Amino acid sequence: TIYNLGSINLDHVYRVRHFVRPGETLSSSGYRALLGGKGANQSIALARAGAEVRHIGAIGEADAWILQTLIEAGVETSAIARRQEASGHAIIQVTREAENAILLYPGANHSLTRSQIEQALVRGGSGDWLLLQNETNGLSDAMDLATERGVRVAFNPAPMVSRDIAPLLDRVDLLIVNEGEAMDLTGASTVAAAEARLHNDYPRLRILLTLGRDGVVYVTPEGRYRAPAFSVDAVDTTAAGDTFIGFCLADLAAGQAPEMALRRASAAAALCVTRAGAASAIPTLAEVETFLAS
Length: 294
Ligand code: ADP
What we know:
This protein has helices at 38-48, 65-73, 114-120, 139-148, 179-186, 191-201, 240-253, 258-273, 285-293, and strands at 2-5, 9-15, 30-36, 53-60, 80-83, 88-94, 100-105, 129-132, 152-155, 174-178, 206-210, 216-220, 223-227. By secondary structure, it is α/β, with parallel strands linked by helices. The protein has one domain: UDP-N-acetylmuramoyl-L-alanine:D-glutamate ligase (3-Layer(aba) Sandwich), CATH 3.40.1190. The longest helix has 16 residues, at 258-273. It is globular and about 60 Å long. Residues 178, 210-213, 215-216, 229-230, 232, 234, 237, 240-241, 244, 266, 269-270, 273 line the site of adenosine-5'-diphosphate.
């Protein structure tokens, strides 16, 4: 089982001529409500990649349809709590020039309790992992429980709001960061320097460093692996990182060779960027295999 402690957000996307100005009432010419949040996206990617995934999170009472969407994607939702408060959500204004302005309210994502995590994270087998991002509370408690119970920890510290998450790295087996996060986390001014610093400071840490169109680097105590990105026509890079993480962790947890895990995850992320949207842009394993065979 892969336990994913993560955010669940509602993205309210409004099409506007320009961003709302102070005191102005502006009519929007289009509206869509989408499921998002790095946590939910990564759970969906894990499930589409074929992993058994239990999401640990929280939503507001009024939003039961979110559970249905996750269940349909193959995610186990028994550890998603229902709260008397708003689900995490974002008000997103998008202009014709594709610029956006985002107002985020974390809501129920910040209401996770230690006992909820304790109940959800059962002691399990050798393929068990706990995955976390940085959009909920409870990270330190969850890492402690996982460590006690012999569950390995994968951490994607996104969004990277401050460097005070660095002390958590002692409990992490697999760190997954993009270029900006790697540099923010280490204070290094280049990705190469960030990689060297992380490898030096945490010699046993496995590091997945995603480099956008430049592909990915995977640094482990046993060796360093590299995989190029696939060349595709990018339409929308939203959720590319989440797709990569879900597919890569699904394969690594299942004991696949790193080369295979990186290749499949790169293909999944490439397919994701050819489609608009977040959760809905995440491909299935069958689509990834068809893409790789073509
Ligand atoms: P994030 O979305 O978290 O910033 P990256 O931009 O590093 O993460 O993207 C994650 C992975 O998605 C990359 O390692 C790559 O495999 C794939 N990817 C991202 N952008 C593209 C692109 N334009 N074309 C093909 N693959 C891409």
